[in-house]
Amino acid sequence: MVKHSLSKLALSLTVALGTAGSALAATTIDFESTATGTYSSLGYGPVSISFLAGSGTFDVQNENPGPPVSDHVLISYFTNPGPGSFQATFSGGASSVSIGVNDYPSSDTDDVHLRAYDAVNVLLASDFKVIPGSGPGVTLTVSSATPIARVEWNQTGDYPGSVYWDNLTYAPVPEPGTYALMGMGLGLVSLARRRKAV
């Protein structure tokens, strides 16, 4: 009877763990639902996007320079040319963040950067890549055990700010209760296996 109850409890917690894990799955903002135009900020649930230079404005345009960028994309060049940075802040923090970037084929190269900061502006992680004039596009990724409060991304080199950004993807930070539930579930699964072996 105890074995049976313990097995049922372990099964219930395993299902709960799966539900908690799926709630923490990465979310991608692809900008498809955002109308083309000029913006000073955009909000997507716990994520807020802004531009940190010049007039603080940027554009959502419909462009397709190639993977990983297509259709509705972000670009700062037409309202604020130069190496200024986009910023995304995460209410509740993120454990990882990535964003795709590409440009149409040309003779110039694009140096692209992504930097992650904690709540007191300590740099946690960064990624840097070069897109040659003929492509292909790239995805920049940062991750940290310390919650990421915000990220900044930009392009330097030739014609700074002239690349297209798309598919901002982030994984939220698990809440402490999720860790407790995971620990309890794993402990009960282990106990149920030990009793079954006896």
What are the salient characteristics of this protein?
198 residues; alpha+beta; Jelly Rolls; eight-stranded antiparallel beta sheet; three-stranded antiparallel beta sheet; globular
The tally of domains stands at 2
- Distance linking N and C termini: 14 Å
| DSSP E strands, number | 11
Cα shape: globular
Strand content: over 45%
Number of helices: 2
Provide the gyration radius in Å: 21 Å
CATH topology descriptor of the largest domain = Jelly Rolls
In the CATH scheme, the class of the largest domain would be Mainly Beta
Low-confidence stretches: 13-23, 177-181
CATH-assigned homologous superfamily of the largest domain: Galactose-binding domain-like
**From the helix content, strand content and strand pairing, which structural class follows?**
alpha+beta
Give a short account of the largest sheet: 8 strands, antiparallel
Q: From the coordinates shown, what is the CATH architecture of the largest domain?
A: Sandwich
Q: What percentage of residues falls in helices of 4 or more residues?
A: 10-25%
Output mean pLDDT: 86
N-to-C order of helices and strands: HEEEEEEEEEEEH
